[in-house]
Every structure is written in structure tokens, then in C-alpha cells.
Prior knowledge:
The chain is 26% helix and 21% strand. The protein has 317 residues and is α/β, with parallel strands linked by helices. It has a single domain (4-315), classed as 3-Layer(aba) Sandwich (Rossmann fold). The longest helix has 23 residues, at 293-315. The N and C termini lie far apart (52 Å).
Amino acid sequence: MRLIFAILGPLALIAVAAAEAPQMPKPQISDPGPEGVRIAESGVFANYFAASGSGKHSAIMVLGGSEGGLGTASMRDSKALQAQGFNVLQLAYFGAPDEPEELANVPLETFERGLAWLKSRPEVNGGRIGIVGASKGSEAALLFASRTPEIKLVVVGMPSSVVWQGISFKGGAKSSWMSAGQPIPFLPYVPGSDYNDIYGAFANGLKALDGHPDTIIPAEKIRGPILLICGKADTLWPSCPMAEQVAARLKAKRFRFRVDLLEYADAGHAVFGPPLQRDDPKYPTLNSVGGSLEGNNDARRDSWSHVLEFLRAALKQ
Length: 317
């Protein structure tokens, strides 16, 4: 038996299988619609949502989770941020043209190119750029920001405190990320007796963290405030324990910027993003990875107001 992770949907639900790996589902590459434009240039594949009005505005790079490409969830977040007056780049980092097919050994240079593209835009204030990530996108956001002084703010939902093993169907354990052609040290999954226990594979991995200190994301190197949002009922991975690890590390390292940690008891892996209307087709899926429908949506409503306040305060919007 070997552990194989398959991406099953926009909430990045992961299932375990044995023996032959199934086909990777086609990553989401959503059309930006009239609010945005598709970018495919200079090694950047993204949807771009420019703020309305003249002059320079703050900018945000949005990184979705393991749905890959340009998912509908991160696009919803991007359009909501655009409506608040931010320039937003919804950046694809795998599963898109000229990018890795799988969420394994994804080069951090992808995010460097996205940042450079944003800074080159005449409507973007290059000194006021933040990053927003959810699930695996939170892992990328924290890691990239820890290496990039130009990032002035980080907001992450369902965050990771470590670099995890990548999600690959091609055999062999690989890192999720690489830099300058070299894989970044990663924390392996540790499955228990029940190979269908995805949460347990992550939780067991964290128990072995003392033996893999080089996999911890050095969030204290980030050059701006950090907002962490998680649901205590998350059944996909232990996002609240990992968020607490990040917050504790920042406190121990005497991090000089603002750190907010928002935890919600009746929310799961759908805790992050703008609240949904009850007639939204996605509303019935909010409880699919922990928490109740109302608990997740209430958490989204409360946390999203904090997200907007946090962004405005840090980026002077």
C-alpha cells in the first residue's frame, strides 16, 4: 500500500487510494468574466482584476488551493477584493499552461514572476503589495512572503505551518515547492492504519515535526502583518493547530508586526472567503470538509470583515 492523494474539487478535498493512481482531475481554469482579463505572458498565467478609478492602487496576489489552475473559489475572493478597490492578480501555479501538471516541485519563481508583473503595472503601487492564500495557497503564501521583502502583508485561510510533501501521482515522495531548481525540505505524510484518514496523515506528520525542523516555514522573516484564519472543525488537515504553531513561533521570535489569529469552532475547511447567499450553488458544499453550513458561512461573514480591515490598514487603501 502507498499513499496517493487525489484532488477532488474546489474545496481541495483529498482522498486516499491504493495501487494504481487514478487520472488527475482536470484543474480549474476559470474565465475571469467581464470584471477581469486573462494574462498569459512573461511566464505568468493568471486572471487580473484591475481596480476601478484613476491613480495607483494597492495590489494583492491571490493563491488558491489544490484545485489548481485558476479555481472558482479563489476567483470569487479576487473579485470581492477588486470590488474593494484593490488590483488583484489571481495567479495559477500548477495545472495551467507551461506550469507543473501536479502540485509537486512547484518553483517559487512562479510567484516571483507574478510579483514582477504586478509591479510593472502603471496602476499598481509597487510599495503596497500583499498576498492572500487559502489551503495549499496559504503554504505558498507564507513561504514565498518569508523570502520576499516586497510582500507587505499576508492573509491566509486554513494555513500550514510547514512545507508539506507534494501531491504527485508519478511515484516517489516530492516536495510541494522548489527554488533555484532545488526541492525545499518537506514534511512527509504519515498515514495510520486507516488509509482513508486524510486528516490523520497530516496530524501524524506533524507529530514527527521535531525530526524535520528544516520544513518549518520561517514566518518571522515576513516584512508585514499576518492574519491567520481557521476552522476548528476542519476535517481535511489540522489548520487550527498549524495556525497556532505559526502564531506561537512569531511570538517566540518577537515578530514586530501585527498578528491576528481567528479561530471558529463550527467551521471547517470552507472557513475562508466572502460569505455565500443561501441560493448560491456552492452553499450546500460548505460543510463538506468540516463544520456546519451555518457555522462556515457565519465564520466567513465575520472573518471577511476582518480581512478587509486588515488589508486596508496594512496597505493604506
